[in-house]
Fold each of these.
Amino acid sequence: MNRTRTLAPIPPTVWTAGPNPIDPAVTWPAPIIEAITTSFSRPGDCVVLAPWPAHAAETRGLAGDGALTGARDAVRALGRNAIVEELAPTSSSVAGTAEVAEDRAESGDGARLGAMAADRANLVIASMPPERGTDGSAEVLALAAARALAFGGVLAVYTHSDWSTGRLIHPSGPMIVAAQNADLLYLQHIVTVLTPIHGGRLQPMPEPLRQVSNEAALSAQLVGSATTGHARVHGDVLVFAQAHTAIAHPEDLR
């Protein structure tokens, strides 16, 4: 008797913000980074916070990114070995020499960071700007993460949709395709609610944190009506796993 097993799709999980709203403009929100860390790693694990790959002509000052530094410190406070590393597909280790040296000088814990650089990461966390979904950078990040992760390790990408250019941009699709092309296993889509919930209702986002949609303003002008605001109240976390013990070279995964 032939039996076919059909796997049910994994439904999205919803994470709530807690008692305080989360600023939608922050690329590395500490409450969300902490939730990712506790959900997908254990104390003592190596956690890499990976800035999104820069444009070819762009220079990056990682030391000046206060939100990223705060996120790294939050992960360390949870008992994880956290480093900031701009991953590249040709990286031969989890952490690059320059970034490890910078972290070592700042933390004074050279032995711990040196040991981390020799091992693969248990968790890689990245923050994806929505406008970068179609420029090839998702493929770069996915390939690099696939190489950096240990067997069973997780890549978690925090991102969100955007409509500020007058059209909706939703980067989840390109990121999922890029990760699957890098042979990472797509595990889950998590909706991260940025505003507290009281009495079963979303609380209004405080005015300073509201993001007004240019698309809504343009539509209102076209129809001659009053401009209405549109607040973004959630982000997205895309979760992928390294399901292979032997990691292929990035050029073999293209």
Amino acid sequence: MRDDRWTTVTPSQYHFERAALEHIRRHLPDVEPYRAWSNFTFTADTGHVYEVDLLVAAPSGLYLIEIKSLRGRLANSGPNWIAGEPGSVRTFDNPLHLADLKAKRLRSLLDRQAAKQSVRLRIPYVQGAVFLSLPGLRVQLDDHQLHWVFGPESTPGQAAGPLPGIWSGLLDAPPRDERRQVSPELSKSLPQLLNGVGIGRSRRYEQVGSWKLDSKPFDVGPTWQDHLAEHAQLPHEHRRVRIYLT
């Protein structure tokens, strides 16, 4: 996909994320209604600031894609995901939950901008999805944890992975519902609508005193966001920092 259809709002600092984005970009064609925006932030009506890895407009819908570059084994215990290898294992929430929340709040802002800019087009549902970008990940999630989870496309001569491909299984898939479809007219209006929403450069870290906060919250509430924080001078010191929204 050419630069005029793929907008890099913020260049990624991370090799694995750059590779994941390039993997998707290689498969996206230069035809309507395909467009994409990578690594941006937006502020929701609630005051929450959200980081978005990738937003893609495809014929079948608008997709907000959360990228996870996980190694080793991925399983779940109830709603929690457990990833890693012996000696380096972490537990976290299914990232689809947060992706869906971001998608709903972004759609609300797009709806408002469409009315404000007199764009006479219906804003479709924005679907959250998760891209597990590294091949070789041993996926042992329960079936109900696999909804809207995708992996990399297999290369010729390579065995298919355990997950549907992000291109063949999602972005090139036929429309599931006509209410989700993206028309060429809407796709052409999206740059102006997103500009009105006020998407901005991704800020990977925020500094609070001596603590460097990861900009992606790992838990959110109606009036707060929790972030992981690392001490600027003592890299092995970590805290959980809560920001109250106004």
Amino acid sequence: MSNLHVVIIDAMNLIRRVHAAQPEGDAIDTTVNACIKTLNKIINHSQPSHIIAVFDHMGSDRGWRAEILPAYKQHRKPMPAVLEQGLDAIQDAFWQYGVDSLLSQGDEADDMIATLALKVAERQQDVTIVSTDKGYCQLLQPTVRIRDYFQQRWLDLAFVQAQFGVRPEQLCDFWGLAGISSSEVSGVPGIGPKTAASLLSDYATIDAVFAAEDLAPKWQKKLNGHYELAQRCKQVAQLKTDIPLGFNLQDIRFEPATEGQSS
């Protein structure tokens, strides 16, 4: 089996941050050029055999997570109009560089990225997800890594332990209890990150926490009546890994375009 290194770029996570760093009022061409420079640095650093940029769909539908938890990303700031209008130009520039784009159809890009990452990992091949989104940390395993390009760091086991105080496989239970403020996932009222980490250190899962008979009365009081909410928040935090992708690895083999290499 040949050694593969599949790099999956969380495209909107990257592009929105690149765009935000550009001088206000600049034309979309500036963002396109900045995105290509960023892409070049990512490729030089990671040396992929295969690469793809995964984009969220641009519709107003907030997807299956909002059906489970109506508040999910309810007040998320819309994409700047100039950026939305320039996405085709960015995708074209990526294509000319040798990087194909995958556009989600109703499913969030996160779930498509998770599905692809685990499909590759099942073949014992290496995957790097390029994103600042800590939600991908639930996928961590020896062949799956997450790279925060902007902070030039790996979101690895040590990062998860320092940031959350739990193991990667406990992260969805952690978010089920403590919530995710950036996505308007409430968690259990009155249960903060430190308490969630402490509870999961003792009981490992949400089910075990709620089933525990030796919990301190103050935690019992806060948890009482919130089991269903905690489970819904956990479900929303979990990445789907069974999304139909419609392509194979050969389709995303990286063959750099000549002009792309010189930019």
